[in-house]
Amino acid sequence: MLVVENLSFAYPSAGNLLTDISFAVDKGDVICLLGPNGAGKTTLLRCLLGLAKIRTGSIRLRGQKIDAIPAKELAADLAYVPQAAATVFPYRVLDIVVMGRTPHIDFTAVPGREDYAIAQESLAELGISHLAEALFSRISGGERQLTLIARALTQRARLLIMDEPTASLDYGNQVRILRVIDKLAKQGYSIIMTSHFPNHAFLLCNQVMIMKQGKIVALGSPDSVVTDTVLSDLYMTKVKVVEIDTGESKALKVCLPLI
């Protein structure tokens, strides 16, 4: 679905923030992007979304360079799920979700019955239909994150880019969001997500991309990439990857920082 080749990015007054980035995303992939603060993760997401103009290299979506794709067409294939934050205006949850229909509505038009029906379907898909009339600013952080995912589903894009989808959430809501991501991948969605929790890679991702100082330093399966050595070097602190018995056929790996 998405192919990035030799991508580099820089602001005019600074050196390269991203250097020689290459990777590909297939249908159903869940790619976890790990790296310390300042590694370039958010900058890379901005490039993938067409919000930052790359210096060299290319980004192709379904074989076409994204800078040649009109914004509305791009939004029909690629959706962004930001970190949840309360809004200033008292929008209903349903209002937020139906905003995902913007790429499919003429500039001078307003959402119609079909658009609201699709929004309701997305709420039902994520199990939050009961929140439709609630104010977005008054629901919990986990519920806001689910609302933003529902908005992306309403957009009907098959590639989802998620910026730390579990940030600031408690364990219960983190697991709830991760289960939704896993479910979407099994339905054929492709997902790129940033995270500060290496354990997420073991829980639901089939690829992990490790970034440091604007470069990819490791790319591959969680078992091959998320190791003691890589994590300890990445975060400049001792990290141990251990296996725990969950009673399932395969042991689960977890990452533990050593103080």
From TrEMBL:
GO terms for molecular function: ATP binding. Keywords: ATP-binding, Nucleotide-binding, Transport. Residues 2-238 form the ABC transporter domain. InterPro entries: AAA+_ATPase (IPR003593), ABC_transporter-like_ATP-bd (IPR003439), Metal_Ion_Import_ABC (IPR050153), P-loop_NTPase (IPR027417). SUPFAM superfamilies: P-loop containing nucleoside triphosphate hydrolases (SSF52540). Pfam families: ABC_tran. The keyword Transport applies. It comes from the Bacteria. The keyword ATP-binding applies. This is ABC transporter ATP-binding protein. It comes from Sporomusa sphaeroides DSM 2875.
